[in-house]
Amino acid sequence: MKKFDIITLFPDVIEPYAKASILGRAQKKKLIKIKAHNLRRFSKDKHKKVDDTPYGGGPGMLMTVQPIDNAVRKVRNKLVKKKTRVILTAANGRMFNQFDAKRLAKYDQLIFICGRYEGIDHRVEESIADEVFSVGEYVLTGGELPALIMTDAIARNVSGVLGAESSLESESYNQTGILEYPQYTKPEIYRFRSGLKKKELKVPKVLLSGDHVKIEAWKQEQSKKRSGK
């Protein structure tokens, strides 16, 4: 069973998504396990404080090293044979992509550290985290959403999690960065209204032709167009 341990100040944010849909079913099948850990439980401060003012001045508060260090040590799988990777979510991190998702799916345990406030003491990045990832060129209020995004993307690459694993082969970004082709389902013609204008939205004729060679060629062409290649 592959473990995803998410260290956060807001475990209630993590749990509903982790229990829903594909991730929820995968947990029931014991293919994966997703667990949120409340960072305050690992603070040695009598008030369970996990942040403090930055040295040298500056706005906001920084998350301190001690609770994070203790949390990682506590949740890390102690079995020597188990492969573990500690991931910090941060705006300055390397952009997470599909190749990272496939690579990280090979680990037995992934521990995510979710930032909050103004940021995290840099010593966490230097000495505790193995990798630092961002999910986009924008700033979020915390690392919980990035941790869930990465967990979702990685879990899809775990054997048995997807009902039709063959779909992974043609998904966007799984073929050397090429995006997936457009897809259509019934009805063949949908009558669309925009204001006073009416328009018939039709499925491309090639997909109705039954000619699998032409259909495959169309899919590849559309994928390349979407990918700008």
TrEMBL record:
Q: List positions binding S-adenosyl-L-methionine.
A: G115, V135, G136, E137, Y138, V139, L140
Q: Main EC class of this protein?
A: transferase
Give the highest taxon in the source lineage.
Answer: Bacteria
- A molecular-function term among this protein's GO annotations: tRNA (guanine(37)-N1)-methyltransferase activity
Record keywords, A-Z = Cytoplasm, Methyltransferase, S-adenosyl-L-methionine, Transferase, tRNA processing
Please state the protein's primary subcellular location.
cytoplasm
InterPro entries recorded: Alpha/beta_knot_MTases, tRNA_m1G_MeTrfase_C_sf, tRNA_m1G_MeTrfase_TrmD, tRNA_m1G_MTases_N, tRNA_MeTrfase_TRMD/TRM10
- Reactions catalysed according to its record: guanosine(37) in tRNA + S-adenosyl-L-methionine = N(1)-methylguanosine(37) in tRNA + S-adenosyl-L-homocysteine + H(+)
Q: Where in the cell is it found?
A: Cytoplasm
Residue stretches making up the tRNA methyltransferase TRMD/TRM10-type domain: 3-227
Instruction: Pull one GO CC term from this UniProt entry.
Output: cytosol
Q: Which GO terms describe its biological process?
A: tRNA N1-guanine methylation
UniProt-listed Enzyme Commission number(s)? 2.1.1.228
This chain's function reads:
Specifically methylates guanosine-37 in various tRNAs.
| Annotated family | Belongs to the RNA methyltransferase TrmD family.
What quaternary structure, including any partners, is listed in this protein's UniProt entry? Homodimer.
Q: What is this protein called?
A: tRNA (guanine-N(1)-)-methyltransferase
Q: Which organism is it from?
A: Candidatus Uhrbacteria bacterium GW2011_GWC1_41_20
